[in-house]
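The aim of this short unit is practical: by the end, you should be able to scan a pair of folded records and say something sensible about each. We start with the first protein, listed as its amino acid sequence and then its C-alpha cells.
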Amino acid sequence: MNNNDLSKNGFNVIKPEQILFCKAQGCCTKILLNDKTELILNKRLNIVEKDLTPNDFFRCHNSFIVNVNYVEQVEENICKLKESDEIISISRRKKTKFKKKLKEKYFIIIK
C-alpha cells in the first residue's frame, strides 16, 4: 500500500489508531497513516468524520480531522503531530474545544 487510491473493486482495512489525520481535498479525503502511507478516499471529509470514533478524533478545522493520540504540540492556530511534517490548522472557533479535548485525555505542559 504505497501512495495509492483505494480500489473500486475492493477495500482496505484500516485500524483507527493507524490514522494520523484526514484532510479534505475537494470532494475526496486524504488519509495519512502512521507508517507514512497516504490513501485517497472518494468521500467528503464530513462523511469520513461520521465513521471515526469521537474519543480519538477531533475536527479542528474545516479541512482537517486529527487523531488526538498523535498531537505533540499546539502553537497559536497550528497543531504538530508525531510522525508527520504536515502543518495542521486549528480554526479560531474550535481552538477552545480542541484544548479541552486534549486536557481531558492528557497531562498538558504549558511553556
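Turning to the second protein, read its sequence before its C-alpha cells, just as you did above.
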Amino acid sequence: MFRRDRRRWLTHRVTARVWIVLSWGVVCTLNSTPAAAIPVFARLYNKPCGTCHTVFPQLNPEGESVRAHGLHGLTPAVEPLKVGTLTDIPGTVPLALYLAGGEDFSRVDEPAESDATRTHLNLAFLRLLAGGEVGRHLAFMLDYELIEMEPDTGHVEVNTLPYQAYVVAHAERWKWLGNLKAGWYELPFLPSPQIHRLSARPYLVYGLNACSLLDVAPPRGTCADTPTPGETQIGLELNATQPESGLSWAAGFTNGSNERLDSTASRDLYLHASQAMGPHRVGLFLSYNPDIVGGGADDRTLRVGPEVDFYSRQFRLLGQFLASHESDPTGHSQALWYYGGFLEANYRLTAALLSLLRVDYAWTPRFDDRAHGGETRVRRQVWEVTGGWQWLILQNVKLIVEATYGENREAVSNSTVRTWAGTIRLATGFWFLDPPGLHEWMQREPAT
C-alpha cells in the first residue's frame, strides 16, 4: 500500500511540474515583446518564423537556402559585435527555449496479454537553442535537449549530451556554396528525422535496425546499444550546393553511428546527393558501417534508398525509402535484408491551420539462423497510419492534435500487436528575457 501511494504521489508531483513548466512557457510567450518571443534566428534577423519555416520547426526552401549558405545569407537586424579584426559575434543574445507538452494516450493489444491503456500529461521535451554567425565564414548551432519524457512510459530523462551541436565553415567559389561541418548533427536526409520533423510521431524507418525487427539482442551489447539512422551523429561532413543547377551533395564520416563519445564501434561513411527542380527535390542516401555494434561482432551494415520532397505553399509531399543489410545481426553468420519507408502529405487548410497524413511501412523476408546454431526464425511486417492537425495560435505557438494506429505482425508465430496512440499538445519557442543589444550593453557608462 505504501509503495502504491508513493507511486501515485510521484505521478501527481511530475504532473504538477509539467503543468508549471507549460504554464510558465505560455505566460512568458504571451507577455514577451515580438522581438524576444520568437527563437534565435528570427530575433537576430528581425524576421517572422514563416520566413524560414512552413510551420516550425519544418524548413521551407528559404530555410534550406540559409542552411546551404552555412547559416548565413540574411542581413542581421542588430549589427554584429567586432572581436578583433577578423571575427564578429551576434549583436544580441542568440538563445531561445523550445518546449512542448500535453496529454498523451497509448494502448497496446498483444495476444495472450491484457490490454494496456495509458494516458498522462507529458512534457515531451525542453530544449535550449543557440546559434548564429561568427564572422563571414563561420557559424554555430546548438540544440540541447535538457529533459524529455517517454510518451509510452512517462519516464523522465535528463540528457547530458546535446542533440545537436556543431560549427560550420562556409565558402563560396566557382558558383558553389560549400560547407565543412563538425560536431553532433543529423544525417543529411531530405526529410529531417527529428530536428525539423513536423509530426509529433517519429518516422518508423529512421528507428529501424535488425535488433528491433528480430527482437533478439546482438552478440555483444543490447538493442539500446545498436544505433539507428535517425540518431544524431558525431562526425565531420563536407557538403556543397550549386544554386544554378540545383545539384547538392554531401559526404562524411561519423563516430560509429553513435552520439556517445565513449562507445565507438567503427567509422561510418555516408554519401548523399540531391537534385532540386524549382522548390522540389529528389535525393539518394547511402551509408556503410563496418561494425554496427563493436566488440568484434563484425556486423557490417549498408543502407541505401531514394527520397523526395515536393513543395508548394499549400501542399507538401515527403517520402523516404531505405533498404538495409546487416551481415550478422545475431552472431550466427546469417545476413538480413530489411526495408522500410514512408509517405507524408501536409496540406495547409488556412494560413494558420495545417493537416498531416502519413503512412509508414517496414518489413523483412523470412530470417532463419537455426541451421547455423541460432534460435531465431522471424518474418515481420510493421505499418502505421498517422493523421492530425497543427494550428498556429501565434507564429511561435502551435497546438498539435495527432493520432496513430499501427500493427506489428510476426508471420512465423502468426501473432499481431496492435497499437493506438494519440497526443494533444502545445509547442512553443521563445526567450523570456528581452536583452539589449550587446553594443548598447558594452557602451553603457560605468558606474561611479
